[in-house]
Specification:
Strand content: 25-35%
CATH architecture of the largest domain: 3-Layer(aba) Sandwich
Helix content: 25-40%
Structural class: alpha+beta
Number of domains: 2
Shape: elongated
CATH superfamily of the largest domain: Chorismate lyase-like
Number of strands: 10
Strand order of the largest sheet: 4-5-6-9-8-7
Number of helices: 8
Distance between the termini: 57 Å
CATH topology of the largest domain: Chorismate lyase
Order of helices and strands: HHHEEEHEHEEHHEHEEE
Length: 254
């Protein structure tokens, strides 16, 4: 950081605000980084506390900085908007946001379906299934975790494809694994959306604190009427927002 120019025609708080903008844009300050305290900023820039507070307030209004009571000011984490009218891949979302994306295979295992999972996948209770856990990463920061369940034989093929793409450092979700498997190009999803809080396991996988807001999307993926996959995606709530456009029939609406 550098001192402000006391002789400049621009107010000191504007100069400090411009410094914040420049350092965030150049990645000198990254999302989640903690800013120096107000006292330290005063000393660094040789300005008053009123100036520092004005600059931080302006930066917060621009979405550059977020203040956490009792902890200080932090560089804000960008929010990625995803339309619910279309299914957009994790890779496309990250690329549009200017981030380097990749997907990790956290683990895969064989298990037996309980009654609920068997019903979703149209299997007999106790049938073997394959569990696959993926983690989507953007700029080395975990963004989303995907837990997927398949019938065993099909799931083994999907897990193999996932390991191959991860080894090539590709960004993907299970939807990308369906390409080229000989099925119809059209698949169908049934989805539900829910807000939850991160438990111990999820907080470790997404590198957030316990109780962190999480946006959970449950999906059943079909080819025609045959269920192929049950998937639970958990997105960091501070980094995603989902948008939906709907029409209203004014004649029949309550």
């Amino acid at each position: 950081m550098r001192r402000t120019n006391q002789g400049s025609n621009f107010p000191l708080y504007v100069q400090l605000l411009r410094t914040f903008r420049k350092q965030i844009a150049s990645n000198e300050l990254n999302p989640g980084d903690k800013l120096p305290s107000e006292r330290e900023l005063c000393e660094i820039f040789d300005v008053s506390r009123i100036t520092v507070r004005r600059a931080i307030s302006e930066a917060e209004s621009e979405g550059l900085i977020e203040r956490v009571p009792g902890l200080g000011a932090f560089v804000a984490t960008p929010t990625y908007q995803q339309s619910l009218r279309e299914v957009k891949s994790f890779a496309a979302t990250m690329v549009e946001s200017g981030l380097v994306a990749s997907t990790e295979v956290l683990f895969t295992k064989n298990m037996f379906s309980d009654f609920s999972l068997a019903k979703v996948l149209n299997l007999s209770p106790g049938s073997p299934v394959r569990f696959l856990r993926l983690r989507g990463v953007g700029n080395a920061i975990p963004r989303v975790v995907y837990d997927s369940y398949f019938a065993e034989e099909f799931g083994a093929k999907m897990a193999g494809k996932a390991h191959d793409l991860a080894a090539d450092e590709k960004a993907f979700t299970t939807l990308d694994l369906y390409r080229g498997d000989g099925r119809s190009d059209t698949i169908r999803l049934e989805q539900t959306f829910e807000a939850i809080l991160a438990d111990t396991e999820l907080s470790e996988m997404l590198q957030v604190k316990q109780g962190w807001p999480i946006f959970q999307v449950e999906s059943v993926i079909y080819s025609v009427d045959q269920p192929l996959e049950y998937r639970v995606a958990r997105y960091r709530g501070d980094q995603y927002k989902f948008a939906l456009e709907r029409s209203i029939d004014l004649k029949n609406s309550p």
